[in-house]
Amino acid sequence: MLLRAGLRWALMVVLAGLTACGSPVLLKDAASAKDSYWQGRLSVKVFSKPVQAFSANFELQGKPAQGELVLTSPLGSTLAHMRWDDHSATLQANGEERHFDSIQALAQQVTGADLPVASLFAWLQGVNEVAPGWQADLQELSIGRISAQHIEDVQAELKIILDR
Predict the structure, then answer these.
(1) Is beta strand 36-46 parallel, antiparallel or unpaired with respect to 52-63?
(2) How many domains does the chain have?
(3) DSSP for 149-160, written as a single string
(4) Which of 10, 93, 103, 158 is deepest in the core (most CB within 10 A)?
(5) What gap in Å lies between CA 19 and CA 53, rounded to an integer?
(6) What is the pLDDT along the chain (164 residues), one digit of tens a residue?
(7) 115 half-sphere exposure, CB direction, 13 A CA radius
(8) Separation CA 88–CA 109 (nearest Å)
(9) Integer angstrom CA distances of residue 140 from 38, 60, 98, 131, 160
């Protein structure tokens, strides 16, 4: 239960465990150059009782069908490392590795909600794609800020500040 609660916040950002300390490493070779890449800070607030909040630095690379997300603390410790493709998703947490059928299944298992993975990638590219249960605000994307609210079931708020 503690693992699930801790990962809930990491994955509400899009998707979401503790691994060894260190800086995240995302490969940026020629094969991945066609993928999108973002880094910055994110925060998630879930309006449950009690209200719970999480914030972290992030590096996101890829696309909805295949990608990688690394969350780190302000001091550079890796908080969560997720990888996914069309056939599976992997989450490293507490020195363990868990496997799921998809990134959506990973998010559903850990957060209890369907996260808008494809829409998040669209939002980061400036496309205000509709995501059931979510309302995105891209008005400040030109200065590197995105916010979104989950308005169904458990309400949540996601804020992203992109590094320039």
Answers:
(1) antiparallel
(2) 1
(3) EE-SSS-EEEEE
(4) 103
(5) 20
(6) 434 444 454 444 333 322 223 333 443 443 344 569 999 998 888 888 888 788 889 999 999 999 998 888 889 888 778 899 999 999 887 688 999 999 888 766 665 455 688 899 999 999 999 998 999 999 999 999 999 999 888 788 889 999 97
(7) 28
(8) 14
(9) 16, 19, 36, 19, 10
Asked if residues 113 and 103 have their Cβ atoms less than 8 Å apart, the reply is: no
| Residues in CB range of 114: below 8 A, 6 or more apart | 104, 107, 108, 132, 133
* C-alpha atoms less than 13 angstroms from C-alpha of 86 in its C-beta half-sphere: 0
Segments forming the whole domain that contains residue 62 = 2-162
What CATH number is attached to the domain comprising 42?
Answer: 2.50.20.10
